[in-house]
Amino acid sequence: MIPYGRQDISQQDIDAVVAVLKSDFLTQGPKVPAFESALTSHTGAKYAVAVNSATSALHIACMALELGEGDWLWTSPITFVASANAGLYCGAKVDFVDIDSRTYNLCPNELEIKLERASVEGCLPKVLVPVHLCGQPCDMKRIRELCNKYDVKIIEDASHAIGGYYEGQPIGSCHYSDITVFSFHPVKIVTTAEGGAALTNDHKLSEKMALYRSHGITRDQDEMTEVSHGDWYYQQITLGYNYRMTELQAALGISQMMRLKEFVAIRHKLAERYSFLLKGLPVLIPYQLENTYSGLHLYVIRLQLDEISATHKEVFEELRVNQIAVNLHYIPVHMQPYYKAMGFKYGDYPDSEQYYKEAISLPMYPGLSESEQDKVVKVLTSSLASK
Ligand SMILES: *Cc1c(COP(=O)(O)O)cnc(C)c1O
After folding, report:
1. 183 Cβ closer than 6 Å to some ligand 1 atom
2. This protein's superkingdom (predicted)?
3. Ligand 1 atom at shortest distance from the alpha carbon of 195
4. 131 lines ligand 1 (CB under 6 A)
C-alpha cells in the first residue's frame, strides 16, 4: 500500500530517542526546552511551548487569549475538526468563513464581508483561526489588517506548514498573528509521533500557555507566606491540564528539525514532478501563490468532473483498489454530524462544499519513490479515462 503520508525516520532519529531512554529524564528534562529552542530559532518567534499535540496547542492558545462562553471563534470549513473544536473546548461558539476556491484557504474577501456584518450585529469573533491548508500560507497581511480593524485575535493553524515561508518570513514567526500552532503527527512535515507546539512573540501569552500545559502550576515562590516552604513547594494558580510533551518526543523532534529544509525540498521536488506528469489530465493541480513557499504537507488535485465520466467516488476507489491510499482533506467541518446538530447545514459554505466534491490528496512524503509516483499517475490516468 502506498499511503498518502508517512514519517521519515533516520538512524540519527532512533539514536536520539534511545539516548533519552538511557538518560535520567523521560519527561520534564532538558530535551523539551531544547526542542522549543529549535522551533524559535527556525521561526524567529520569541517563545515556543511544546505540548503533546496540535489539538492541545490550539486549546491552550484559545485559553491564553481568554476565549470563553459568549465568544466566537471563526475558522475555515476545510480543516481538520481540531481547529474548530478548540473553540468548543473553551465554551465559545464556532462559525466558519468560506474558502477561496483557488488557494483553498479561508477567503479574505468573505472574511471582510462577514466581519462587517458581525460588527453591525454585535457578534464579532474574539479569535480567528486561519489554516495554511496543504502548507500554502494564507494571505496573512490582509487577514491581519482586517482583524486589527475589528480587534480580533489570530491563531495560525500551521499544522501543515512548518518549513514554509510567507513573504520571506518563516511560517511560525507570528509576524501577522498572536499565536501559531504546529502539529508533529507522523503524517505531518516533522514528527514527534504525537506532538504540537504553540509559538508567540508575547511573553504573557507564552507564560499563560506554559501554565495551562501543566495543571496551572508554577514553582514561583511569592505568595502564601503563612507557612514556610522549601524546594518542594509549588502553587496552582489557575486550572490547567497535563498536555506535556515527553523527552522522547522532544529528542525525536530536535533530530527531525535538522532535516526540515531537506524534507520540504523533497516535497517540492515531488510536487513539481506530479504537476509535470499530470499535465493535460482533467484535474486541477495546486495553485502556488507568489511570494510564498509552501510547506507542502499535501498535494491536492481537484477532478474536473464535467470533463470526465467517472465520479469522484469511482476515481477514489480505483486508486484504493490499486493499493494507493489516497485521502480527502477535508470533509467540511460544518457537515460533520456534531456540527450539523448545532444548526449548520449543507449549502452554508458553497465553495468548501464544491471543493469537497472534487478533491483528492495524492501520496506525498519524503520516502515516496519516483516509480511509486509513476504508479499513482498511471492508475489515476486510467481511472479518469475509464467507464
Ligand atoms: C493534524 C492537524 C491538527 C491536529 O493535530 P494533532 O497534532 O493531531 O492534534 C489540527 N489542525 C490541522 C489543520 C491538522 O492538519
Report:
1. yes
2. Bacteria
3. 7
4. yes
Whether domain 260-383 has CATH 3.90.1150.10: the reply is yes
User: Residue 242 burial (CB < 10 Å; 0-12/13-18/19+)?
Assistant: exposed
Task: Point out the ligand 1 atom lying closest to the alpha carbon of residue 183.
Answer: 7
Domain ranges of the chain: 2-257, 260-383
| Ligand 1 mutation target, pool 131, 185, 252, most atoms within 8 A of CB | 185
The domains spanning 2-257 and 260-383 adopt the same CATH topology: no
Q: Which atom of ligand 1 is nearest to the CA of 57?
A: 9
CA of 336 to the centre of ligand 1 (A): 16
Verify whether ligand 1 is closer than 6 Å to residue 55 (CB atom).
yes
Q: Which residues contact 185 (CB under 8 A, 6 or more apart)?
A: 53, 54, 159, 191, 194, 195
Around Cβ 166, how many Cβ atoms within 10 Å? Answer: 26
Give the fold, CATH level 3, of 2-257.
Aspartate Aminotransferase; domain 2 (3.40.640)
| pLDDT at position 202 over 90 | yes
Q: Is residue 180 classed as helix, strand or coil in its secondary structure?
A: strand
* Confidence bin at 226 (pLDDT 50/70/90): low
Indicate which atom in ligand 1 lies nearest the CA of residue 185.
Answer: 7
Give the catalytic positions in this structure: 188
pTM of the full structure: 0.97
CA separation (Å) from 280 to 8, 14, 177, 274, 275? 32, 43, 39, 12, 10
- CB of 315 closer than 8 Å to CB of 301: no
Confidence of residue 229 (pLDDT cuts 50, 70, 90): confident
Confidence bin at 230 (pLDDT 50/70/90)? confident
Q: Ligand 1: distance of its center to the CA of 82 in Å? A: 6
- Quote the cell numbers at residue 265: 525540498
Amino acid found at 293: Y
Q: Decide: 157 in ligand 1 pocket, CB within 6 A.
A: yes
For residue 195, give the nearest of 170, 162, 167, 228 by alpha carbon.
162
